[in-house]
């Protein structure tokens, strides 16, 4: 049954088998924004005209040393044919000083002029090769990154939380079929992959096999189930956090391999209900869930001097503890005392200088 469902979404072209230069329109790697080819050409042409005028001025100043009685137009003409190595021979230096100036000044400028024009052409033509090499290096080195499937409202919020928690932008990969959404992700310095994550080859070129975690946040619940199935098959050890709109689909995601499932419609509904009765509670919940200034729920390892203590009596406001991968609330019997290796969930004051808690 799973194979039949997956075949509906599988494409004929395996992107993971394509050469790196064929992925230029699929993968975008963050980096310093370079000038467009047209801007590069215009800037180089401006440099070339500066050289032309400079040589024309030099020739005009020494106009008595040439075979013709030169005007400035004649000097500019000689500059153009000389620097471009055309050399018609109708104007030639005849005095010793004019020939010396041609050897010492104009010849090096001629070489610089040619390098300038050839360099412009090579820069434009090799831009795609540079990007292809960048993609090749990224695919070879990327590991322990986070993949976000879908860059809608949920995906953007997830990325904001990751960035606020200290995750480097180049360690976040966004997969989305909408190029306008990917453009917004690129503006944040994120690596982007154009395509649908229901296809295994798209997940492969995003490096899902070496990813630390995957956030599944598409707009459709059936898409979330299929993506989770594919991710779990390709990355058995990755942490998968998925979102669904309806609670009746939660068990499908859990059966598909999701480690954690967030029900967006029920969560929003609870907040709406609370807002009608106790708006201040909703404001505090938003503060805890929103990255940036205010309070947030964080996780940290237990300090040596905290082992054996009751977590209710610690300096931090502890909400629960994680022991051997299991979460225990502060009111559970297992949370009566702190044991070595435990991790505490607590309320942390967030400032602009905070970094991710280890």
Automatic annotation (TrEMBL):
<dbReference type="GO" id="GO:0006813">
    <property type="term" value="P:potassium ion transport"/>
</dbReference>
<dbReference type="InterPro" id="IPR003148">
    <property type="entry name" value="RCK_N"/>
</dbReference>
<keyword id="KW-0472">Membrane</keyword>
<feature type="domain" description="RCK N-terminal">
    <location>
        <begin position="143"/>
        <end position="263"/>
    </location>
</feature>
<feature type="transmembrane region" description="Helical">
    <location>
        <begin position="100"/>
        <end position="125"/>
    </location>
</feature>
<dbReference type="InterPro" id="IPR050721">
    <property type="entry name" value="Trk_Ktr_HKT_K-transport"/>
</dbReference>
<keyword id="KW-0812">Transmembrane</keyword>
<feature type="transmembrane region" description="Helical">
    <location>
        <begin position="45"/>
        <end position="61"/>
    </location>
</feature>
<dbReference type="InterPro" id="IPR013099">
    <property type="entry name" value="K_chnl_dom"/>
</dbReference>
<protein>
    <submittedName>
        <fullName>Kef-type K+ transporter NAD-binding component</fullName>
    </submittedName>
</protein>
<dbReference type="GO" id="GO:0005886">
    <property type="term" value="C:plasma membrane"/>
</dbReference>
<keyword id="KW-1133">Transmembrane helix</keyword>
<dbReference type="InterPro" id="IPR036291">
    <property type="entry name" value="NAD(P)-bd_dom_sf"/>
</dbReference>
<dbReference type="Pfam" id="PF07885">
    <property type="entry name" value="Ion_trans_2"/>
</dbReference>
<dbReference type="Pfam" id="PF02254">
    <property type="entry name" value="TrkA_N"/>
</dbReference>
